[in-house]
Amino acid sequence: MCSSDLDRLDADRRRVLRTASVLGDWVNVDLLEELLGTPEASGLTDLAEFMSSDESGQLRFTHGLIRSAAYEGLPFRIRTELHARAAAAIERRARAVDDVAAALSLHYLLGETFEPAWRHACRAAALARRARALRDAAECQRRALVAARHLPTLEPRDVARAWSELADLQYDIGELAEADLALRQARRLSRGDPIALAHAQLATARLREAAGEFSEALRWVTRALRLL
User: Fold this and answer.
1) How many whole angstroms separate alpha carbon 73 and alpha carbon 208?
2) DSSP assignment, residue 53?
């Protein structure tokens, strides 16, 4: 499946597929129809070679390459708008926002609606961390930090805390080099907050100890103690 295969479809079917691709590998039909804004989704039986349905009525792309080709065929402006609209629709339909926080963080971020992207990503990361889904938590934490780049009014201490939390997650899943980079950011943003800076320094010491760099670990512990 490539873009040229999609181009052979008529305009209505191509639009349905490309809009559905924004929603992921699994697609809620009601949500798709809302994004389309027309009854075009009722013609999904014409797309059986590209999408199948399960017992609940959800649709699934029959192959990841189909979804990728459909998604890549969307102009960036339209893709961004669809993600923002999907996020708003998912949040409006949700019985409990916590249940969809991860999805909201992704759609708001890709929809370039950065304040709710930051907020939902932080919440989704906390929920995943509580459930011990550490890789999911780290992914959501990274989304929060991408959103933070576009939010200059955020307090530096809040962004520093997000970097520290990402470093803790990366340490726990064995991404030590990535954790080191995250802690550099946390230390940089915590210079005006001695407690937060000492926390980041002690986390750095733990990282150096895990790497067998004991003299470096001692140096970071000493820095933290002097600061406190």
Assistant:
1) 46
2) E
Per-residue pLDDT of the chain (228 residues), as tens digits, is 555 567 677 888 888 889 999 999 889 888 998 998 865 555 555 677 788 877 777 888 888 888 998 999 899 999 999 999 999 999 999 999 999 999 999 999 999 999 999 999 999 999 999 999 999 999 999 999 999 999 999 999 999 999 999 999 999 999 999 999 999 999 999 998 999 999 999 999 999 999 999 999 999 999 999 999
52: left (phi over 0), alpha (psi -120 to 50) or beta: beta
Backbone angles phi, psi at 212, to 5 degrees: 80, 10
Q: Cα–Cα distance between 174 and 192 in angstroms, integer?
A: 30
Query: Secondary structure of the chain: what % helix, strand, coil (to 5)?
Result: 75, 5, 25
